[in-house]
Amino acid sequence: MIGYAFMGRAHSHAWRTAPRFFGLPLAPEMSVLVGRTPDATAEAARTLGWAEVETDWRAVLERDDVDLVDICTPGDTHAEMAVAALAAGKHVLVEKPMANTLEEATTMTVAAREAAGRGVRSMVGFSYRRVPAVALARQLVAEGRIGEVRQVRAQYLQDWLADAEAPLSWRLDKDRAGSGALGDIGAHIVDLAHFITGQPLAGVSAMLDTFVTERPVAQSFSGLQGTAGTERGPVTVDDAAIWFGRLAGGAPAVFEATRFAWGRKNAMRIEVSGSAGAVAFDFEDMNVLHLYDAADDARTAGFRRIDVTEPDHPYTAAWWPPGHGLGYEHAFTHQVVDLLEAIAAERQPEPSFDDALAVQRVLDAVERSSAASSVYTETGN
Amino acid sequence: MIGYAFMGRAHSHAWRTAPRFFGLPLAPEMSVLVGRTPDATAEAARTLGWAEVETDWRAVLERDDVDLVDICTPGDTHAEMAVAALAAGKHVLVEKPMANTLEEATTMTVAAREAAGRGVRSMVGFSYRRVPAVALARQLVAEGRIGEVRQVRAQYLQDWLADAEAPLSWRLDKDRAGSGALGDIGAHIVDLAHFITGQPLAGVSAMLDTFVTERPVAQSFSGLQGTAGTERGPVTVDDAAIWFGRLAGGAPAVFEATRFAWGRKNAMRIEVSGSAGAVAFDFEDMNVLHLYDAADDARTAGFRRIDVTEPDHPYTAAWWPPGHGLGYEHAFTHQVVDLLEAIAAERQPEPSFDDALAVQRVLDAVERSSAASSVYTETGN
Amino acid sequence: MIGYAFMGRAHSHAWRTAPRFFGLPLAPEMSVLVGRTPDATAEAARTLGWAEVETDWRAVLERDDVDLVDICTPGDTHAEMAVAALAAGKHVLVEKPMANTLEEATTMTVAAREAAGRGVRSMVGFSYRRVPAVALARQLVAEGRIGEVRQVRAQYLQDWLADAEAPLSWRLDKDRAGSGALGDIGAHIVDLAHFITGQPLAGVSAMLDTFVTERPVAQSFSGLQGTAGTERGPVTVDDAAIWFGRLAGGAPAVFEATRFAWGRKNAMRIEVSGSAGAVAFDFEDMNVLHLYDAADDARTAGFRRIDVTEPDHPYTAAWWPPGHGLGYEHAFTHQVVDLLEAIAAERQPEPSFDDALAVQRVLDAVERSSAASSVYTETGN
Amino acid sequence: MIGYAFMGRAHSHAWRTAPRFFGLPLAPEMSVLVGRTPDATAEAARTLGWAEVETDWRAVLERDDVDLVDICTPGDTHAEMAVAALAAGKHVLVEKPMANTLEEATTMTVAAREAAGRGVRSMVGFSYRRVPAVALARQLVAEGRIGEVRQVRAQYLQDWLADAEAPLSWRLDKDRAGSGALGDIGAHIVDLAHFITGQPLAGVSAMLDTFVTERPVAQSFSGLQGTAGTERGPVTVDDAAIWFGRLAGGAPAVFEATRFAWGRKNAMRIEVSGSAGAVAFDFEDMNVLHLYDAADDARTAGFRRIDVTEPDHPYTAAWWPPGHGLGYEHAFTHQVVDLLEAIAAERQPEPSFDDALAVQRVLDAVERSSAASSVYTETGN
Asked: Among residues B183, B280, B166, B188, which one has the least CA distance to residue B240?
């Protein structure tokens, strides 16, 4: 595994936990953790449970005892690492967004397709696909339970930057992160829309905003929270993004991603309305899926609040009794399960680099649209 | 009052009820109901409590005992009626949307400004401003409780057309209604955004959709529900509208209006995020306002679910004890109260025709934007 | 109508509004308002819309133009008034609780049975039965949708006395009110349990509490809110009541009524679990009924949030389109409709005095149980 | 660790995970798993991550390399094991309910007090105390944020036995489980009431019910779900329990525990109303605490929905960013953290056997009260 910050901790937990709850076809071994600083990396390896450490990620690619590389670094390094790992015959799991530019993403996808021909697998970490309620939503839509997809509305609302004095991090630096709310959280709702409906976005109209253009430089970080210093630096990414568009099948879809929505901590929401019903999800109530079935009789129809913790639901039989809900990191554990099962079965895991490229194309179109003046019609007000 | 369908019933109830619960400066008398069909109008007058009937609305304008004309007809008749009534020195309350075209709306506004110089008042029936929770939201924003307005997200979701066999009505006929979801319900969320933030939308990017282009012709109607016949006719308005834009102060705002969102009956929702907090409202829980105050200590901050039924809240002292919630039609009663108080105080009631013109400009820009191909950036998917 | 405070206002609105929205078999005329103070009564009559006033309620019973007497006074006067009115051949609607003692309630019930033999009707104002979501709950239970009734849990939580400085009113005086939270709001949840399940409570174990034993004497009142003076007086009723028991069919049921639950404004809640499903209601979301149908497939079963505003729902077709919710006073309007329909059809309206007597027996048993020391088993803690 | 069913899995995960996320003063080693069947125990040890297995729990007590014994077996074995382990100088963590009878619980408590004198620690696994929102509730109550405790209402609603064909397990056998819903889930809400208010229940009045007296014998089990065979056997425990009582300080409290509430999966709910506010929790939304602060101004007071995932909240700084919620098993991980910190600091961990004995006394009093006929007052209905 390369990187050991927020995502590295989540991935380590997943590698450690998956074999304890799921019957896996392959037994993962947590062999090498890669980081640039020897001491910090060694300490992280101890805490997170990796057997060895390495400061040069290229060295790991030469080891025979490494079968899979898990890339948890900022987006500007993904392309180089992933392409090299695939070339070296290592399966690759890369965090989202897959890359900071469409060009890098395309290069990675070409490499992944080529590697697949050699039996080398690749996957992108859109972990929210593995939340049981989200997986159930996709099942129900795919089975036709809500009929033909007519409308998608999605939001990803956070508030950790709403305080103008929250410090800078690499996530606010365009060179490292590629974009702001758009790539960090907007990418997730694009992927969810693709995943649940089975259709990619074909076009968009978009608007990006940066509300706070200068912030204190951080001195230390823990998760997304940093301690501010006295120096200040520029924010070079978007704080919020709004866009709408059409799915390949023509259905309209509207999206908002922001890290400035006071009181919304991790409100990743998606609602898909079809010709025969609707599904709705909100990560702030992550164990629940809401389903409206228009076939229910008019007197008792209503959104069903499904507690997605029954043994019949995706992933949940491996865990606890009904109502004993799962948390954020379980999706990462499920991601490991799905990845290892695909590798063992010699099939392409999902979401593939192709799937992630479809997301990347949307992010790129959003940025292009936002930059174009023709998007906007004056009201005269 | 001209017209006696859904809106006519709501307005009649308001005229009858306002003096019973509020100390009004003027005592309304429900003198004449105007309708085209003598028998049906007479029956409506009996049911709704109007003293007389008239089939020619122009005749009413000549009567000395009529001080105020309440226009509840479809949008294509508003301009002619309102302009004539104002010219005749009658105060005017006109239902929203104020008109079907920007041209008509402009004519009306000019007439209203001129009439105001003669002490003749005019108001547009954006009744949702009078829901206590909405009025409280505006108060809090105006007082600076959420700081500077940064973002607006608004939805108006209904499902009464989601069934493709729901019959046609004048609301689906462009000639009568002007537009579909956009003017019928989209107008409300534009007005709410203007009202709560105090800023109009300066520009938009938009997309309109019609999902079902042909429907059975209705044989009879009750409220929004009709009985379908065997004949079919075209739907000439939008079924759904999505748009985003910027308020005059620069804050981004995103909107969706649809009558196809299965399971959402009257989900008129608006959330305004500011630099110091946020307010959120959903008409499906109409007696509640959610407030996030970023000044609350970090350990106990959270959206407050305010049951807006305390005596300190707008309009509520006139009604019932706390927790004994109000319903849809109360907003119309409050509208009558506010209108009569403004007339008695010789000041301009709100929302004025100017306020409604600002909404109309947005609706017009949404239609123009939706028709323009340049709005759209292809993703390549 | 006798009395014109909170309940008098609600009843007046109902008499005025019912004929405007419902096709009634009898046309109500609001002829005489009775109150002790001539001036205040006259003013109330003007505001509430009664044609005449009277200070002696007995005088009204002698008038031929009065067919029905609506009793909205405190509970200590109900028995005398109701018995006299029935003897005079007037139909009677009496507010709940029907009486302050079981003895009075029994006398009234005997009188009502006798009057029924003469075609004189009587009803008690348990208005919450007429909330559409509650009426739907009863329908579903009666139709067997949740199977055999197994468990009832009910709460009525308010907070208007939680402030120890909230002033005294007749509702805190045992002589006038009979009891406190028990009779005022506890009576409602007992009646709802009886109504929805179709079974009365056969026995109880109970505990009453008074948290604040002395309060400021009120100087003026508006609704439940008064203005405190400097003098203090004793609270002679319960502030909160808890009891459990069994329905006639054996199912256990648990109840809590309190006016001290900070943050709960009018949370009248009832959930009935059966062998095949459950229904749940909360007045703070009064237009919604939650239904769990155990026959739904395991993967998509969940409480359905039914917006009880569709034309197929009880009472709602007379009002507004779906999602345009009703408020507190609508239940009183429905009460008038049901009462007049029963009188016209020459059948007994519900809830009858017999039905209310069943509630009164529960209240009485709760008081007796609470006073008995044998109820309590020490834990040793 | 002794036992490896549902609780054994939860505990194993906790022992494995705690050192990865928390800086612990002691490093736990998962040395021996004890079970009666050698093969099944060996397989469980492999899956759950225990180094060795043992079939005789007494043998483990003789090992010097074992410092702590974690008892996850049914309640009828707890007393013997715990007393022996403490005598052997091993720290003990025992699952709840601590014992099946008050006598056993008392014996264990005496042993624990004696062992504490020797520095040997003991704790009972009321894990829900370690849900961050619950821990926050206790903090706020202890700090006086809601004033003096006035009322407690608690429910624990599940539905896994509502289906009359759900098979038997040891949890339905009085000899193994001691009681049914009462001891299994009722014990939790008693402990939570004690924990949050800091006061034990002093007395109760209670009613127990068994709705389904005979069920299919299970053939295999996974979590709480079994596969039914054709044979049938008796249910010898309660299906549901209702009780009320008073805390030591006099405040009334009401409780319901049931496994028959269709649609409620794991609704462990507690609300504490005080003189200055209230806190409310529902495990079905486990990352949220609701707080009503009566000091908030009347216009904006309302229950605050606190997403208990901020770094300032109990336990949460060790996990993920705000809004990235925790799941059921996290409470077990926190339990390990608290236990090891107490052992290292040479102080008594909580809840102690004394704390659990207080719960046991309540369970015992509930059973005695339920058996006494004097609890019940007939209504005459």
From this structure: B183
